[in-house]
Design a protein that fits this description.
alpha/beta; Rossmann fold; 4-stranded antiparallel sheet; 23% strand; globular; binds adenosine-5'-triphosphate; ATP-binding; ATPase-coupled transmembrane transporter activity; ATP binding; nucleotide-binding
Length: 228
């Protein structure tokens, strides 16, 4: 089984803990990216695969192209060449259908310092801000109640009042909230850009513990400039 590969690029891709039976894999194959109007590739032949319900880590020095890769995975820009796709596997471990593109709407992304982008004055509004409206108010309310509760429980925010001002939360809780916002719709792939940046040691330990817990349920890719 391929574990990780990084080709012709200063970016390193690493996976932790493989499930014994893989049903889906997110893959990037020979991805190259050259910004429009420029001569040089930022990414050259980056390939890796990430099994469902696992945590992968992409690390590289500043300027190595991590943010560029993250934007490609989130569908915010398109590879110049290569592909990003999901491969499904049967119980026998063999691919059971053709690879499918990774739909951008199924990718959740938490950017660096997400708390800087909080817009609401209470936790509830922050979580539901920007949700796609469904037909019928009742449907929307049911959807909200169910998914919101699950997301809040997942990240350990259930003890926090939904009326609380997000800006008044501690650093670690602000990161939990940023995660809850993405988890409401259960993304196929959750990407976290430098999730520990700017946190004190205690908040870092909390977020690491939370990610260990979440990877049992979700496919997570962490992008970082170091491994500490
Ligand atoms: N649109 C663009 N046009 C030209 N060069 C670009 C463009 N976008 C990014 N770059 C360059 O590509 C390189 C990789 O950028 P990127 O932001 O992906 O790196 P990074 O690894 O995320 O860096 P950091 O850790 O500092 O955020 C940098 O040298 C950057 O200046």
């Amino acid at each position: 089984m391929a574990s990780y590969v990084a080709l012709s690029s200063p970016i390193h891709c690493k996976q932790f803990e493989f499930p014994s039976l893989i049903s889906r894999k997110s893959r990037s194959r020979d991805v190259c990216y050259r910004p429009p109007g420029t001569q040089l590739n930022i990414l050259n032949g980056v390939s890796f695969s990430l099994p469902e319900k696992s945590l992968g880590l992409i690390f590289g020095q500043s300027g190595s192209g991590k943010t560029t890769l993250l934007q490609l995975l989130a569908g915010l820009s398109k590879p110049t060449s290569g592909s990003i796709y999901v491969q499904k596997y049967g119980n026998d471990g063999k691919p059971n259908m053709s690879p499918e593109p990774l739909p951008p709407e199924r990718v959740g992304i938490v950017f660096q310092f997400p708390e800087r982008y909080f817009v609401a004055d209470n936790v509830l509004d922050e979580v539901i801000f920007g949700w796609p409206r469904q037909s019928g108010e009742l449907q929307l309310k049911e959807y909200l109640a169910l998914n919101l509760q699950r997301a809040v429980n997942w990240v350990g925010l259930s003890g926090i009042s939904l009326d609380k001002d997000p800006h008044s939360l501690s650093g670690g809780y602000k990161r939990r909230l940023a995660l809850a916002i993405q988890l409401v719709q259960i993304p196929d792939l959750l990407i976290l850009d430098e999730p520990l940046a700017g946190l004190d040691w205690k908040a870092r330990a909390d977020v690491v513990k939370l990610l260990k817990h979440l990877k049992k349920e979700l496919t997570i890719l962490v992008v970082s400039h170091d491994l500490k």
